[in-house]
Design brief:
Helix content: over 70%
Number of strands: 2
Order of helices and strands: HHEEHHHHHHHHHHHHHHHHHHHH
Shape: globular
Largest sheet: 2 strands, antiparallel
Strand content: under 5%
Strand order of the largest sheet: 1-2
Number of helices: 22
Length: about 525
């Protein structure tokens, strides 16, 4: 069978969406059949993702691969155009992996199970589409459609304040999406030819002021999703009311959409504007790291504490994107994948802990390690990964961003010293609030009221399996980062070279170095 021309990405996107449409006709009231059906669909789609990239993706090629393009609405210039490179491929794999585990994590769902799994599978295809589409209008459509399942998953299966959290989520994210649409239309109609193809738009010669305006619009939209302070307040509320599988999708995939789009559109398509905005991204990244870490330290609600921790860790992504070094940008991509794995594991364990204690308040916990030793061991291990313990993926990612920014020649020494110092402060704050969290939940004297009213049973095999699946890549990447970095190095190196050419001082240095190298043989003669 010749698979070279098979539409892999289209199949991977549409298969879970098409499969979700069959759920309403499945004869199953309790959800037992539907959950197995959804899990099988998730596994098949993840297997297709792995097979497609294993057989059809060349790590040494920095350009788009597995490209497919079909006219969809020619009158509007809208095409079904998909492809994958080093920026999107790791995140597509991450999406398939996390979503499949989220389906397994949703096993206890008994309230409207058909609708729940329908939304999960529809979201599966939508999130992959965000990372694969190569048409700006199509990107806006899948970005918007992906928001709908999350809204219903929050508003129907959330906590007591679920309506407030879901409404706030949709208002923030849909409001930010308007800037994507306006910027996309403006870019597409700029110049003599009308096009929404991302590769064609990246080659357009936009005026600097025009680039700056577009960059501002995109930055506002992606600042909401990343999220960047002060457009972050929807995230703690959403996490505070979500269930465990929705937590995994929010932390593991949704935040990565903002980081990916920031690289794909702001940096790759508007490099001249990126040279001006990069210091702003660095400052915003530092604010994210410090402010969110301090806020996390002050939280008494377990879900909100981990949510602010996620915001803090995404600050490293912004600094890596703005570093103008291969190492820094590579670290940013690695941090997105690493945090996707670690964030999903921590939020799943938060959900497992809540199912047993029926409380999220740290003041009401204490000493439960004696009764739940497996959950204690898993929670501790995942927390160590989050605080960047050596041997875990978080350590490698943050170290790469640190070194990449510290060695950047795009900034003054004073600016770099200040930023690196503040980043170090954030790294120091992380273990403080995470270790204090572990102490309050698991150590100390048992809360007699909690123990007497709740059956604190230990982790079941399904829960251990989910955490084991997440810890394997976390530890594997920690000990052998090349396992992941080789997938995207060619793309990030090419992008960094283009970004450096957009900085006048770096471009001048490159030109002078080239002149010296060309004149060296003449001097030797």
């Amino acid at each position: 069978m010749n698979t070279a021309n098979f539409p892999w990405l289209t199949t991977i996107i549409l298969f879970p969406i098409a499969a979700s449409l069959l759920i309403p006709v499945i004869p199953d009231k309790e959800g037992k059949t539907v959950r197995w059906y959804s899990l099988i669909v998730g596994l098949i789609d993840f297997a297709l993702i792995v097979y497609a990239f294993y057989t059809g993706y060349d790590f040494s090629n920095p350009d788009l691969q597995l490209v497919e393009s079909y006219p969809w609405v020619p009158q509007l210039g809208l095409n079904w155009s998909v492809g994958a490179d080093g920026l999107s491929m790791p995140l597509i794999i991450l999406t398939g992996f996390i979503t499949t585990l989220a389906i397994l994590a949703a096993w206890p769902v008994t309230f409207k199970p058909k609708l729940f799994y329908f939304l999960i599978l529809a979201m599966y295809g939508g999130q992959i589409a965000v990372f694969a589409v190569q048409d700006m209008l199509l990107f806006f459509l899948v970005w918007e459609l992906e928001l709908v399942p999350i809204y219903f998953l929050l508003s129907i299966w959330g906590g007591k304040r679920r309506q407030y959290a879901a409404t706030k989520f949709i208002l923030y994210t849909a409001g930010g999406s308007l800037f994507i649409l306006l910027s996309a239309l403006t870019m597409g109609f700029y110049g003599d030819t009308v096009t929404f193809d991302m590769r064609s738009l990246a080659l357009k010669d936009f005026a600097l002021n025009f680039q700056l305006a577009l960059y501002t619009g995109f930055l506002i939209a992606y600042a909401v999703k990343l999220p960047i302070i002060p457009l972050h307040t929807w995230l703690p509320d959403a996490h505070g009311e979500a269930t465990a599988p929705v937590h995994m999708l929010l932390a593991g995939i949704l935040l990565k959409m903002g980081g990916y789009a920031l690289i794909r559109m702001n940096a790759q398509m508007l490099p001249d504007a990126h040279a001006y905005f990069a210091p702003v991204l660095v400052v915003l990244g530092v604010v994210n790291i410090i402010y969110a870490a301090l806020t996390s330290f002050a939280q008494r609600n377990l879900k909100r504490k981990i949510a602010y921790s996620s915001i803090s860790h995404m600050g490293f992504v912004m600094i890596g994107i703005a570093s103008f070094t291969d190492l820094g940008l590579s670290g940013a991509v690695l941090q997105m994948v690493s945090h996707g794995l670690i964030g999903a594991s921590l939020f799943f364990l938060v959900g497992a802990t809540y199912d047993r204690t029926h409380t999220l308040m740290l003041d009401e916990m204490g000493g439960v390690a004696k009764r739940m030793p497996k959950i204690f061991a898993m929670f501790t291990t995942c927390s160590m990964a989050s605080l960047a313990l050596p041997g875990m993926s978080g350590f490698v990612a943050e170290l790469m961003v640190f070194v990449g920014f510290a060695t950047s020649d795009a900034y003054s020494s004073t600016f770099k010293v200040i930023v690196v110092f503040l980043m170090a402060v954030g790294v120091i704050l992380t273990p403080i609030y995470l270790l204090s969290m572990l102490r309050e939940i698991f150590y100390g004297k048992e809360n007699e009221e909690l123990v007497s009213h709740q059956a604190l049973i230990d982790a079941e095999p399904r829960e251990v399996f989910i955490i084991a699946c997440l810890l394997i890549p976390i530890i594997g990447i920690g000990f052998y980062p090349k396992l992941l970095t080789q997938m995207y190095d060619a793309t990030t190196v090419q992008l960094t070279a283009r970004l450096r050419d957009s900085v006048p001082t770096l471009a001048q240095q490159k030109e002078e170095t080239l002149k010296v190298s060309l004149s060296a043989p003449e001097i030797g003669n």
